[in-house]
Q: What sequence folds into this?
């Protein structure tokens, strides 16, 4: 990873984006763009696309964030030109809560998520009153609840899909204690809970094998594909679209994703 193309942000909220604007102002220039990304192993494939873009005369700076709130605040403030970390349900919720005028302009990868345990080999072993961790944000938490229902551990009100919340659980025969954590922390909670929702990227960062889920959701629902998201005025920005095309068409990018994620991902643009 080259430090000249990635800047880390460990802050949250609007103050973080203001500081980021000061520290990165005028870096990209007229022949470049700034891309906000999440701190995950997907960075490797994006780095490859950055190098290929530079060889073609397009300068791209990756601005790395450690949370899922600051990238949208940074985009709204104009500190970055595009972000790439969220799927459509998450984006729609963020637009509703933050009043953002954002547009998804192209799909990226779609990742499986799973239910993982360091303590048990099957759902049948999970004890009455066991502790289960799911994502704390509304959309990804709902996705976790759907997995728990698929596993036969709970039952939800019908028809809610990923919009389900803990309050929508209508049956919990094992009296599971469901706790909500920031999605990036779920992988590190596995020693403290009986079962946790998990994401391949964060499991790899935590040193776990993401292939070892007790249950996966599928790759068929492309509503969960990551999106390249811009402000409305940048929908037709030629540089942004050129970089996305480089990313999507690069054989080296695909090889990197295949190496890192194997069968746990799919390119949603195909």
A:
């Amino acid at each position: 990873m080259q430090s000249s193309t990635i800047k880390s942000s460990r802050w949250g909220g609007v103050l973080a984006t203001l500081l980021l604007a000061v520290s990165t102002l005028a870096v990209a220039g007229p022949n470049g763009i700034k891309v906000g990304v999440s701190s995950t192993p997907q960075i490797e494939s994006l780095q490859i696309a950055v190098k290929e873009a530079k060889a073609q005369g397009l300068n791209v700076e990756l601005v790395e964030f450690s949370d899922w709130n600051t990238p949208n605040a940074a985009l709204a403030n104009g500190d970055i030109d595009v972000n790439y970390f969220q799927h459509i349900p998450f984006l729609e919720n963020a637009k509703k809560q933050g009043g953002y005028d954002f547009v998804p302009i192209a799909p990226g990868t779609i990742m499986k998520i799973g239910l993982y345990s360091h303590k048990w080999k099957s759902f049948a072993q999970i004890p009455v009153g066991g502790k289960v961790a799911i994502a704390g944000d509304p959309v990804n938490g709902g996705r976790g609840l759907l997995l728990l229902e698929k596993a036969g551990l709970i039952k939800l009100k019908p028809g809610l899909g990923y919009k389900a919340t803990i309050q929508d659980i209508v049956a919990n025969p094992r009296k599971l204690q469901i706790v909500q954590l920031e999605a990036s922390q779920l992988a590190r909670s596995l020693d403290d809970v009986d079962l946790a929702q998990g994401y391949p990227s964060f499991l790899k960062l935590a040193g776990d094998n993401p292939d070892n889920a007790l249950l996966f959701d599928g790759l068929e629902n492309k509503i969960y594909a990551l999106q390249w998201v811009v402000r409305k005025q940048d929908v037709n920005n030629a540089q942004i679209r050129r970089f996305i095309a480089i990313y999507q068409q690069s054989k080296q990018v695909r090889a990197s994703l295949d190496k890192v994620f194997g069968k746990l991902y799919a390119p949603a643009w195909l």
Q: What stands out?
A: The longest strand covers residues 32-38.
